[in-house]
Amino acid sequence: MNPLISVIMPVFNAEKYxxxxxxxxxxxxxxxxxxxxxxxxxxxxxxxxxxxxxDQRIKVFSxxxxxxxxxxxxxxxxxxxxxFCFLDADDVYTETSLSNRLEIFFKGDNIHFVDGKVEVFxxxxxxxxxxxxxxxxxxxxxxxxxxxxxxxxxxxxxxxRIKNINxxxxxxxxxxxxxxxxxxxxxxxxxxxxxxxxxxxxxxNYSAMNNLEKLEKGYTQIxxxxxxxxxxxxxxxxxxxxxxxxxxxxxxxxxxxKKAINTLFR
Length: 266
Fold this sequence. Notes:
The chain is α/β, with parallel strands linked by helices. Helices cover 35% and strands 21% of the residues. It folds into 2 domains: 5-206, Spore Coat Polysaccharide Biosynthesis Protein SpsA, Chain A (Alpha-Beta Complex); 209-263. Strands 1, 2, 3, 4, 5, 6, 7, 8 and 9 form a 9-stranded mixed sheet that branches. A hairpin with a 6-residue loop joins strand 6 and strand 7 (128-132). The termini are far apart.
């Protein structure tokens, strides 16, 4: 078996890192992939750097700046792969990222998503800060909704593409869009993972987790979206409780006591 894997990379003003991200895909020991790069209105040198790569497997599309969800949706509409996954323009794949995840799919017929170990680094990848290793196998819906952390770091999942499913990110979400995308597509499907490292993640001071007000807004929006899917009421309550706890602790860590207390009463 030699299925095609679509790698989706949105790019916005990532000139400092985008070449390294693209090269990490080219360096894969599994060669049957396509890389769909969506230049989301970059105003720096990103597009020039992207166009320096002449590999025919790389497909580049440009649009006005519309945000990461819209950019990913463009690629989801244009992809040809049997499997698909995501790579942010400032992160890096390990050389076996695609093959290690694909191998897990081949071990079981009823696996729909495969994740892997994520190594968190500083901005120049010189210092390993922490590692994330999933600790759950099976249907991930409850784990995702209850924010257990057992099967969710970010967009590190590889998806087995299913015919007639319209894969789209919710473009109204500016934070938590990847969590909601996973929740929507996880119902009645199964998750597994490889213990090998699949992603090197750069931690920035301006990352989504550090913009607490927008993060809180994202959690609130997802809470409302949960009403649109058929889940037991206790799961919704667990989500609300856990998200409030996360925001409470996050605000306290930043010394924002008043905002921390306010989260408990929203």
